Amino acid sequence: MQCLTRSAQFNPSADYIGLGLLEDPADKKLKDEYAVRGFVHVPATGSHGGVIAKGGIRRDVTFSLAALRLLAAGDDAKQTLALRRYVLGLSLVALTAPPVTYLRQGCNLVPDIDNPRKVTLVNADGSREEFKLMHDQAIAFAKLAAKEFGVGESQSVKFDSDLAKKDIAGEGDVKATRKKSAKSASEPKPGAQ
């Protein structure tokens, strides 16, 4: 197998500085904060660029229902169930969506008809069974779950320069959340050695 490198360029959705929504960063620290939030162009050079496969390519997807049990809407059991079903519906649509075969210029991935896609349900006790779910079934479930959850209409939201500046400066709730997340990630889990 031969490893390759690549370069890429992130382009923000708007020219935040050119449009006067944010001031031009004066120092590297501020520019880095802009980059983390997607407010400026960010080049990436010499990063992992894939491999040349001399055999097959296999795609594995793991969808953990156990993670859904961690979602909660406060103490509201009915809204928690609706939230879990909504996320389940979105996940099933993504899981069953027909794969895009166009990888890049000159490279189309084609499913192997001699080895069709297999979906296996792995139960908590380790037992396994074949699982069949069609994409149209997943979409029907997702639509029903979205209606029950109460997904609203799409809307356009105005970019708030002041809120972005506060976030970059680490002011308000964002700073506390980041510190709390970093602290909890570094703390040992109960029972861990």
Structural write-up:
- It is a single chain.
- With 193 residues, this protein is an alpha+beta fold.
- Helices cover 37% and strands 16% of the residues.
- It folds into 2 domains: 1-55, no CATH class; 60-151, no CATH class.
- It has a two-stranded antiparallel sheet with strand order 1-2.
- Helix 3 (77-96) runs antiparallel to helix 4.
- The longest helix is centred in the middle third of the chain and has 20 residues, at 77-96.
Strand and helix map with partners:
Blueprint: E1 2-10, H1 28-36, E2 42-52, H2 65-68, H3 77-96, E3 102-104, E4 107-108, E5 120-122, E6 128-130, H4 135-149, H5 161-169, H6 173-186
Antiparallel strand pairs: 1-2, 3-4, 5-6
Strand order of the largest sheet: 1-2
**In one word, what is the shape?**
extended
Beta strand %: 15-25%
How many DSSP-defined strands? 6
Rg measurement, Å: 22 Å
Give the fraction of residues assigned to helices: 25-40%
Number of helices: 6
Total number of distinct structural domains: 2
Structural class: alpha+beta
Distance between the termini: 37 Å
Overall average pLDDT: 84
Largest sheet: 2 strands, antiparallel
Q: Please provide the ordered H/E string of secondary-structure elements.
A: EHEHHEEEEHHH
Could you list the spans in which at least 5 consecutive residues all have pLDDT below 50?
A: none
Descriptive labels:
extended, two-stranded antiparallel ribbon, 37% helix, alpha+beta, 193 residues, two-stranded antiparallel sheet, 16% strand, single chain
Gist of the model:
The protein has two domains: about 1-55, no CATH class; about 60-150, no CATH class. Helix content is about 35%, strand content about 15%. It has helices at about 30-35, 65-70, 75-95, 135-150, 160-170, 175-185; strands at about 1-10, 40-50, 100-105, 105-110, 120, 130.
